[in-house]
């Protein structure tokens, strides 16, 4: 029971996003707000992100899609086939606890996510988050990192970079020897996740506004 009253927080979310847009960078592209809150973890995620991991969260997650559509890849706890849940702009999605999931955010998208403090198990040990990487060829689990969450917009990136910069054996499937490669940005077309197209180089073909720089032969002497 608090002994004194506290003023509730009010925040201009659109202004906050404008001021923090530059911090939404891959691989995770997220930034926490209201970081002093005790009972909720709130952050904004933008696109593109570049992820081929699955996050395992011991609490529920609430996704609210502010701009654009995204896909969240799920690995159901009943062992059924992984599949994408499409969250369209303006929709919310409540993810159950412990379900391995991979948010896939195309360029230009924005979402608000709410999670919760992780709590402790029956023995008093803190619940741990997990990041898992599965083989893209045979779908066997290749590597899992588990840790006690401290800061949502720092921890995931740190764990990912440790995976990519660590021994190649950690990224190699023991069943089929496939090596996991870094993920690239994705696009979402008609509800299907595809690889984002790389920026095409400017064409060097001559146009009316920009004629080709052709070398001309000197005129023949008469």
Name the descriptors.
Jelly Rolls, 222 residues, 30% strand, 10% helix, 5-stranded antiparallel sheet, mainly beta
Architecture overview:
The protein has 222 residues and is mainly β. The protein has one domain (13-195): Jelly Rolls (Sandwich), CATH 2.60.120.10. It is 10% helix and 30% strand. It has 2 helices and 13 strands; from the N terminus they run αβββββββββββαββ. The longest helix has 14 residues, at 152-165. It is globular. The N and C termini lie far apart (104 Å). Residues 200-212 have low confidence and may be disordered.
The CATH homologous superfamily is called Jelly Rolls
Q: Could you give the order of strands across the largest sheet?
A: 1-2-9-4-7
Instruction: Assign the CATH architecture.
Output: Sandwich
| Count of discrete alpha- or pi-helical segments spanning 4 or more residues | 2
Name the CATH class. Mainly Beta
Task: Find the CATH topology.
Answer: Jelly Rolls
Q: What number is the mean pLDDT? A: 91
| Helix-strand pattern | HEEEEEEEEEEEHEE
- Looking at the chains present, what oligomeric state does this protein adopt? single chain
Q: Unreliable runs, pLDDT <50, ≥5 residues?
A: 200-212
C-alpha-based Rg, rounded: 23 Å
Q: How many individual domains?
A: 1
Number of strands: 13
Secondary-structure class: mainly beta
Strand content bin: 25-35%
Helix content: under 10%
Q: Largest sheet, described in full?
A: 5 strands, antiparallel
End-to-end separation: 104 Å
């Amino acid at each position: 029971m608090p002994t004194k009253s506290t003023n509730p927080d009010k925040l201009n979310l659109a202004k906050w996003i404008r001021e923090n847009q530059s911090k939404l960078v891959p691989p995770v592209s997220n930034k926490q707000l209201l970081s002093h809150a005790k009972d909720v973890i709130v952050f904004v995620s933008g696109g593109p992100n570049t992820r081929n991991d699955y996050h395992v969260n011991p609490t529920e997650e609430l996704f609210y899609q502010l701009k654009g559509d995204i896909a969240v890849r799920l690995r159901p706890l009943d062992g059924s086939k992984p599949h994408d849940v499409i969250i369209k702009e303006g929709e919310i999605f409540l993810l159950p606890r412990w379900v391995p999931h991979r948010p896939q955010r195309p360029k230009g998208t924005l979402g608000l996510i709410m999670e919760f403090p992780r709590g402790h198990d029956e023995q008093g040990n803190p619940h741990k988050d997990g990041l898992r990487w599965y083989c893209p060829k045979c779908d066997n689990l290749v590597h899992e990192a588990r840790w006690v969450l401290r800061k949502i917009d720092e921890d995931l990136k740190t764990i990912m970079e440790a995976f990519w910069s660590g021994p190649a054996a950690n990224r190699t499937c023991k069943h089929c020897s496939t090596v996991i490669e870094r993920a690239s940005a994705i696009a979402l077309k008609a509800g299907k996740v595809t690889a984002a197209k790389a920026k095409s180089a400017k064409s060097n073909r001559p146009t009316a506004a920009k004629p080709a720089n052709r070398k001309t032969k000197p005129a023949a002497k008469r």
